[in-house]
Amino acid sequence: MTLPEQHKLVQDLKYHLGTMSGTDRYDFEMILKRDKDDEDLDTIAQRTLERLAALYLPKKTKKDVDELWKKLNTGKSTPGSA
Questions:
Q1: Residue 64 near residue 72 (C-beta atoms within 8 A)
Q2: One pLDDT digit (tens) per residue for the chain, 82 residues
Q3: What is the pTM of this model?
Q4: Cα(59)–Cα(41) distance, rounded to whole angstroms?
Q5: Which residues neighbour 12 within 8 Å (Cβ) at sequence distance 6 or greater?
Q6: Which own/partner contact pairs does 73-77 have at CB distance under 8 Å and 24+ positions apart?
Q7: CA dihedral of 45, 11, 54, 6, whole degrees rounded to 10
Q8: Where are the domains of the chain?
Q9: Under 8 Å between Cβ of 31 and 40
């Protein structure tokens, strides 16, 4: 895992800190401190970060993205028409 990937996962997981269990919260806070210091994570911490991401970050499917795209594009007028 590269440093930008690690930083992105940590930033995404910050929003789910309130829903984490006590152990997961402790593990994430330790990873968060290391991320603030721009440290590379060791393999154990990387696995923990990936496990937390799999547990707490919602999965987006193509269907979800397509539905959102349709929702955003319906009801809008075409540019130049008014």
A1: no
A2: 788 888 888 888 888 888 888 999 999 999 998 888 877 788 898 899 999 999 988 877 888 788 888 888 886 655 555 4
A3: 0.66
A4: 24
A5: 53, 57
A6: none
A7: -40
A8: 3-73
A9: no
